[in-house]
Amino acid sequence: MQVLKQLQSHFQEYLTHGSNHIFPEIAPDERFSADKRLRVYFDAYRIRLMEILKLDFPKTHTLLGDDAFEQAFLSYLLQFPSTHFSVRYFGQQFSQFLASTPPYSNCEVFAEMAQFEWAINFTIDAKDANLVTSQDLASINPMDWPSLHFAFHPSVISHCFAWDTPQLWQHIDSEKPERAPVKHETPIRWLLWRKGLRSLFQSCNPAEKLMFEAIQANADFGEICESLIDTVPEDDIPMTAAQTLNKWIHEEMVSKIY
To answer: How do residues 179-199 score in pLDDT, each as one tens digit?
Structure first.
């Protein structure tokens, strides 16, 4: 049993790092050397992982091009070898890698696109939960509103993008002619979530941005309204907050009121 574990460990080291510890354990063959026979598995392992990365990041692949994407993959594999039994998680640090590794880090939109695509995948894979309905909202006693807290559905995720990354994703997805990314004056917060079987995304206006951040900070409704004082006319704050919450509930983004 110990011999088998050692053989498996050496084979894994070879696949992931090219270690030659397994070479003496390979039976001789007059036609092909151990190196040539093992190379089949070495190459197949990398080809499969690169296919997975392309499937998870198709628009990032388009932006980088075939050659640059392949080079990025090989460098990424060295820094972040696959450690999970499922390849589903292999690309989870790809955006981080692109943001911190030259030459990819010289163009921020590469990392942003990878981050956006990973977020889309996250919304699809996120666990399910109960959904709050408009009827639930209407049944709340007005006296209870100030102390209410809200929780988003597990599929809801948010990122701030300095570039028009979501629009560029749509542009590429529609197979329109190539265009350059556009940088915003200030980063824009986007929300992504799953509605039914679809992954959706939408930018936040200033009030929505503040409300989302307040809810994430576990603020109650009174504190959420206070966060809008410098953004929304005072008389309009309660209605703005209630309408935004109702919108998010209609879009199946809220899973709990407490």
So the answer is: 999 999 999 999 999 999 999
- Closest CA relative to residue 212, chosen from 256, 152, 140: 152
Q: Is residue 158 pLDDT above 80, yes or no?
A: yes
- Fold of the domain spanning 115-258: Outer Surface Protein A; domain 3 (3.90.930)
Name the strand (E) or helix (H) holding 195.
strand 183-195
Please, are residues 224 and 193 in contact by the beta-carbon 8 Å criterion?
no
Q: For residues 62-70, give the mean pLDDT.
A: 97
Contact present, 251 and 241 (Cβ < 8 Å)? no
Asked if residue 85 has pLDDT above 90, the reply is no
In terms of C-beta distances under 8 Å and separation of at least 24 residues, what long-range contacts does 62-69 make, across chains too? 62/172, 63/109, 63/110, 63/113, 63/172, 64/104, 64/110, 68/104
- pLDDT digits over 237-256, tens only? 999 999 999 999 999 999 99
> Is 0.85 topped by the overall pTM?
yes
C-alpha pair distances (Å), 107 with each of 87, 102, 172: 27, 9, 17
Integer angstrom CA distances of residue 229 from 55, 142, 211: 44, 21, 11
Report which of 110, 217, 242 is spatially closest to residue 163, judged by C-alpha positions: 110
Residue where the block lists tokens 């092909």 = 32
Q: How far is CA 196 from CA 185, 193, 199, 219, 252, in A?
A: 34, 10, 8, 28, 8
Q: Which tens digit of pLDDT belongs to each residue from 25-47? A: 666 666 767 667 777 777 788 89
Residue ranges covered by each domain of the chain: 1-106, 115-258
Residue in the block written with tokens 């542009």: 171
Cα–Cα dist 187/164, whole Å: 9
